[in-house]
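Lab channel / #folding
Pinned by the channel admin:
"Please post every new chain as: sequence first, then the structure tokens as a reply. Keep commentary short and put observations after the output so the thread stays searchable."

First post following the new format, from NK:
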Amino acid sequence: MNAVGIDVSKGKSTVTIRQPGDVVVMSPRDIPHTQSAINDLIGLIQGLDGETKVCMEHTGRYYEPVATWLSDSGIFISSVNPVLIKDFGDDSLRSPKTDKADSKKIARYTLDRWANLKQYGSMDKTRNQLKTMNRQFGFYMAHKTAMKNNLIALLDQTFPGGNDFFDSPARSDGSQKCGLRPYLLACGLCPLQVPGCLYGALPALVQAQRL
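Reply from TO:
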């Protein structure tokens, strides 16, 4: 029975291997996230005698590549909520917060919860992919809104009242969507180029359209 505790951080992971009876197979060691170092770690874990389980906290995004690499190599991986690790007692009045201490605590947690550990599988990978897509979509929409608000603010600054010319038809709830982008596209002016040429182009554009 081999318990591998991994504390994942940016660019490296701290790994501890323990066995029942407080036997330390490998003291905390930093493993950089490079292909050669990860392959060496996989070979080390696969070379252990007896059943082996690897446990890590699913914090942030750093753990996902490591969990995928090890899982694809046929190693039992379990990613647990960091609150469970934090609340796990290790019979000590001191609570050091270092990568080495965390990896040792995760290894002890693995031994204690051996039978209840849930294996990281394909559903976890699918959920992570969906979470990534959702985060990227939210990131894009936030920037899109910021760019639109910045464009409207520039228009208010350089041509006060100009936004009134681009109002769209009212929606059912009474709100209006800014109609500036479709108008600029129809006039052959890309909205992404507006901030750079707004001072000179927009007044002439308005006059040319007799607005």
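NK: The radius of gyration is 28 Å.
TO: also worth noting, Confidence is low (pLDDT under 50) at residues 193-202.
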